[in-house]
Amino acid sequence: MLIARAPFLRADLGLDFIFIVIYSGFFVSLALVLKRWAEGQPFQGNVATIVNIATAALLITGVLDAAENAHILSMLSMAEQGQTIAQGEIVGQMVASQIKFMFSYFGVFVLSFALPQSNMIEKLVVFIFRWVQLPVGVAVLSLPVELVRPIVHFSGGLLLRRHAGDGLDHRAARTFTVVNFASTSTLPDERRKLTGFSALLIKVRVADPLRAVLAC
Description:
By secondary structure, this protein is mainly alpha-helical. It has two domains: about 1-115; about 115-215, no CATH class. The protein is built from eight helices and no strands. The chain has helices at about 5-35, 45-80, 85-110, 120-130, 135-140, 145-160, 170-175, 190-215. α1 packs antiparallel against α8, α3 (about 85-110) runs antiparallel to α5 (about 135-140) and α4 (about 120-130) crosses α8 (about 190-215).
């Protein structure tokens, strides 16, 4: 089955390589924007330190992600040539993947302490990165699928209740990754960038992974 689906797997990994470059560049850009936003503020030094630590962890995630893809491609080539893939390689792949995700969870958690919280989207991002993505992510890694799905549903319900006062109804919660940039046109340039970054962060780090779990 693996060999039969090899073209699709190669195409998927090719797209993932592109995605690695995009999200790595995104976090570098976000770090620059956050440091620019904090200029002249009494907490400027703290923001810079937090951003540097978070960015380093997220770039390590990108390196591990690329190594993971390269290893999968090498195992796929071995399978296509009729060679046996050692059990140790498969186990090692799983270990490397979990380490990659833990670096990702750590980086995003730390980053939440440097993000602004002046509007609903930014508050939502901070709340998710501190109290949702880490426990749900660890659950996805360590628990069986039949136990993970209720946790994801519970987290989604908790999120809706937490932000009910911000006017985030059920339909809005399902589409909160879409940003109406026109509504922020009166904000300063740095604030508009941060708002846009916040919405994209929700999609990249929360909406897509949760949708994948619910689809299991």
